[in-house]
UniProtKB/TrEMBL annotation:
Domain Xylose isomerase-like TIM barrel span(s) in chain numbering: 27-236
Organism in which the protein naturally occurs: Acetobacterium bakii
Entry protein name: Xylose isomerase-like TIM barrel domain-containing protein
InterPro entries: Xyl_isomerase-like_sf, Xyl_isomerase-like_TIM-brl
Domain of life: Bacteria
Amino acid sequence: MYLMNISNCSGDLDKFQGDWKNVEQFLKKHQLDGVELICYQDDYLDTLPRSILKGLHLKYFPTWLEFYKNDLKKTCDMFGGIEGVRQYYGGTHPDALVDAFRHEYQTALEFGVEYMVYHVSHVTTEHSFTGAFDYTDDDVLAATVDLVNKSFDTNSDIMLLFENLWWPGLTLLDKDKAKRFLDGINYENKGIMLDLSHLMITNPKLKTSGEAAEYILECIENMGDLKDWIKGIHVNLSLPGEYMIQDHSSQYEVILETTDQVEKYIKTINHIKKIDWHVPFDHPLVKNIIDAIDPHYVVFELLSKNRDQLEDYISIQNKAIGRV
């Protein structure tokens, strides 16, 4: 099944004049079977046709470990005080995270989606610039198991797919860690959503899409039978090696001097976008990657400025896969 990512915020829906019927026509034109939705508030949901809604990308808190461990002082320092914490997490107690994901799960049940996507990662704003992490993959994986088991305490037909990132957590570079993580999750209908860009980012030496494809194929080979857990793929490209090896300390100093939390957030997001590009994977070896995994879901997860650019991006990716 071939899908594309979309959200219900105006930034995405304006590309389609705020009309889901236009989205449906767009999907048909590009041989896509539906969408993987990121849900913001309740905008546009009343007219969303359930027939095209296949997956729900769950809410993502990039920074959450300190809060979940109830280190409120450190969390307040990072978010400019208790009100900043409340705005970011929806509360000031670790249970706010459990409540948030329980709500997301209920939304998935109400929508009747086939799968949910959960990011398994943690990074502070400081460490996203410095890379000087004071937490490990194991720290993040153990806390995620605890949080997920509290939040998704009943099973359903909806698959819960865990997505890899390049920060500490589920990187998929260590199959034993990944297997222990999956074994610890009580939710039975589980698997992996392999994000190709996120896997590329773990190797800053990559310079071309061909090198990236060969690297991913090598990683898949090294996964062994862990590969069987991969039920979906986010298809996109990121080659930020030159940017990643730069010294970003001056950028972080600007962040520290920024008092407005919204402005600080925007500056941080712009930094992340220089790492995680979400542009088309234009090399024909991308088909070999899909064939090697044979996933249930192939999601074109792309970021575009407007509808014309999105048209171009999807066409490029369809051509690389050999679907035109």
